[in-house]
Amino acid sequence: MAPHETQGALGGIHLPDDTIASHSPQPTSDMLAPPDDDDSQETDDTGGQHGEYDDLLEAEDIELPEPFVLPDGFVYVTDIIPDAVLDIRYHGNNNFLGVRVDGYLSPVAILTIEAAEALSRAGDDLRQQGYFLLIFDAYRPQAAVDHFVRWVSDENDTLTKDIFYPGIDKSRLIPEGYIASRSGHSRGSTVDLSLVCMLTGEEVDMGTCFDFFGVESHHGTLLVTADQSAGRLILKDAMERAGFRAYTKEWWHYTLISEPYPDTFFTFYVSSAA
Asked: Is 42 a known active-site residue?
C-alpha cells in the first residue's frame, strides 16, 4: 500500500489516493541551458554553439546545491511503513506557532533505523486492530527547537492560543515541560503520532488536537470521554509492546526505550531525498 499524505486540519484529515507529493529536483546544469533561439547562441571556434550562460557555469563561484542524503543510521518512515499516514504539522502552519517551522524543508518523517523498525512492529499490531499510524512529527532538527524557544519568548505572539494553549499562559510552557531548549526528537528516536481508522479513513478522536498544551492531553486524565481514553490506550499499548516509552503529559509522544543515540542531538534538516 502506498504512503498517504494528509492536509492538517483540526476537524479531521483527508486521505487522497495519490502518494506523497514529489518535490522539485535540485537544479542541474542542463536546467540552466540557454533558450533555443538564435539571439542566445553564437558559434565558437570549434564550430559548436556557445550559449550566453556558459561563462556563468564555468565561473568558480557558482556551486550547485548537493543532493540531500540522510545520515547513516536514519531512514524515511514510509520506506519502512509504506501505509503510514503523514500529517507533518511543522512543515505547514497548522501548529502552535501558526507558521512553518525552521528546519522542515519537506513533509516527511525521519527516524533512526531502530526506531523505525520498532514503529513498524507497532504498526503491524495496530493494523490487525483496524488502524493505520498517523504521524505528526518524528526526527526534529535543533533549528526547529530553537524556533520554538524564540516563539515562547515573544509574548505578543498569541495567534494560536485559543486552539493550542487556552488554559495556560504562554510564559509557562517551558516551566511546565511542554517546550524545552533540547528535545528528545532531535536524537531521532521519538515520534508524535495518532491513529486513523481503516474503515472510515478518519483520525481517531483522542480528545484533544496534537500539541494541545494542557491537562486534557495527559495520560489518565478524566477530562476526556471514555471512548477518547480508549483510543489513547489502544495506541499506548501497541507502542509500549513495540518498545516505546510514553510521555505522561502528551498522549501522542513516544520515545524508543533502547534509542541508539541517547546523548546526541542532531542538526540536519528534515528533507526528502533528491
From this structure: no
